[in-house]
C-alpha cells in the first residue's frame, strides 16, 4: 500500500510538472505568434487622439450626408464586419466606421465603458477626424445604446437612424439573457494558443462564422485578418466591461428617453423562422422611439443581417439618408 501511494504521488507530481511546462511553452509560443500577428495587423483607416489614446476611423464615399456605422458587442474588427456595405454606399454618401476602444485598431482605455463616455468618445472622434453632420447613425446589436445616447446628446447632428437587428433599450434593461463574455476562460483559451489551434479546423471556423453568413461577401485576405483580430482583441477588459454594463447603460438611455422626430428604421432578422418571442415583440415596439419609426423584416438572415443581405441593408440606409 505504501509503495502504491508513493507511485501515485510521483505520478501526480510529474503529471503536474508536465502540465505546467506545457502551459508555459504554450504561452511562449502564443506570445511569439501574437507578435507576428501585430506586425501585419495595420490600420485600414486612420488613428486619432481621443482623450490621450488612439481611436481608429475608416472613411470613404462621397456626398453631403455621412453614415456612421457602429458595430455590435464582441465584433473584433468593425471595418471587416461592415465591408459588404462599402461599395453600395460609397457612390451616394460618405461613411465612417469607428472602432470603440478595445476593438479593431483602437487602443484600450482605463475609462469605464459607460454609455455616456462611449458616446462622447465617438463625438470627439468624428470632430477630430473632420467629419461633418448631418449623420445617419447605423448600429448593429448592442451598438444601439451608444448611438441612441449620441442622438440624445447631440440631436442637431442626427438626420436619421437605422438599427441592424439591434436590441431596444427596454430589451437590454429588462434583464434579458445576454451571453457572458467568457472572462478568464476566454483569456486562457487565447493566451495559451488553444483558440488559435481550434480556428485551424475548417469545421470549427465555419461554425464560428455561421451567424455572419460565413463572411460570404468578405475577401479571403480580410477573412484571415478577422482571425487575427479575434485573437488580438477579444481578451481585453474594455470588451468585457462593455457587456457587464449593458443593463446600466440601457437605464441611462431610458432615463433620457425622448420621442425622436427623425426617421428611425428598425431592420429585424427573421432568424430563418426561429426568432424568439420576446425578441420579436420588442422589435415590433422599437420603432415607437420616433414619430417616423418603421420596422422592416429581413428574411432568410441571422443576427448579422448586413452579412446576409447587404443590398437590402444598404437600400434602407440610403433611403434614410435621402429623407
TrEMBL record:
It comes from the Bacteria. Residues 66-166 form the AB hydrolase-1 domain. The keyword Ligase does not apply. One of its GO terms (cellular component) is membrane. Pfam families: Abhydrolase_1 (PF00561). Keywords: Hydrolase. GO terms for molecular function: hydrolase activity. The keyword Transcription regulation does not apply. This is Alpha/beta hydrolase. It comes from Paenibacillus donghaensis.
Amino acid at each position: 500500500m505504501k509503495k502504491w501511494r508513493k507511485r501515485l504521488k510521483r505520478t501526480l507530481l510529474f503529471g503536474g510538472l508536465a502540465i505546467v511546462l506545457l502551459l508555459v511553452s504554450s504561452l511562449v509560443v502564443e506570445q511569439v505568434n501574437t507578435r507576428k500577428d501585430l506586425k501585419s495587423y495595420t490600420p485600414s483607416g486612420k488613428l486619432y487622439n481621443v482623450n490621450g489614446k488612439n481611436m481608429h476611423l475608416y472613411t470613404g464615399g462621397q456626398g453631403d450626408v455621412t453614415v456612421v456605422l457602429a458595430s455590435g458587442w464582441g465584433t473584433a474588427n468593425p471595418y471587416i464586419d461592415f465591408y459588404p456595405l462599402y461599395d453600395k454606399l460609397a457612390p451616394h454618401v460618405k461613411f465612417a466606421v469607428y472602432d470603440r476602444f478595445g476593438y479593431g485598431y483602437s487602443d484600450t482605455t482605463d475609462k469605464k465603458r459607460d454609455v455616456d463616455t462611449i458616446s462622447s468618445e465617438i463625438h470627439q472622434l468624428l470632430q477630430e477626424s473632420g467629419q461633418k453632420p448631418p449623420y445617419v447613425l447605423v448600429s448593429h446589436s448592442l451598438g444601439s445604446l451608444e448611438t441612441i445616447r449620441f442622438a440624445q446628446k447631440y440631436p442637431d447632428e442626427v438626420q436619421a437612424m437605422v438599427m441592424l437587428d439591434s436590441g431596444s433599450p427596454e430589451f437590454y434593461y429588462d434583464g434579458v439573457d445576454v451571453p457572458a463574455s467568457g472572462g478568464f476562460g476566454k483569456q486562457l483559451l487565447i493566451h495559451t494558443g488553444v483558440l488559435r489551434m481550434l480556428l485551424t479546423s475548417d469545421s470549427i471556423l465555419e461554425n464560428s462564422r455561421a451567424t455572419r453568413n460565413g463572411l460570404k461577401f468578405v475577401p479571403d485576405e480580410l477573412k484571415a485578418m478577422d482571425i487575427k483580430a479575434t485573437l488580438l482583441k477579444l481578451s481585453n477588459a474594455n470588451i468585457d466591461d462593455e457587456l457587464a454594463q449593458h443593463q446600466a447603460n440601457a437605464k441611462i438611455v431610458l432615463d433620457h428617453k425622448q420621442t425622436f422626430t427623425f426617421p428611425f428604421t428598425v431592420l429585424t432578422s427573421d432568424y430563418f423562422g426561429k426568432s424568439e418571442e420576446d425578441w420579436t415583440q420588442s422589435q415590433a415596439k422599437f420603432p415607437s422611439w420616433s414619430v417616423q419609426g418603421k420596422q422592416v423584416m429581413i428574411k432568410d438572415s441571422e443576427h448579422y443581417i448586413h452579412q446576409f443581405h447587404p443590398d437590402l441593408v444598404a437600400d434602407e440606409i440610403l433611403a434614410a439618408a435621402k429623407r
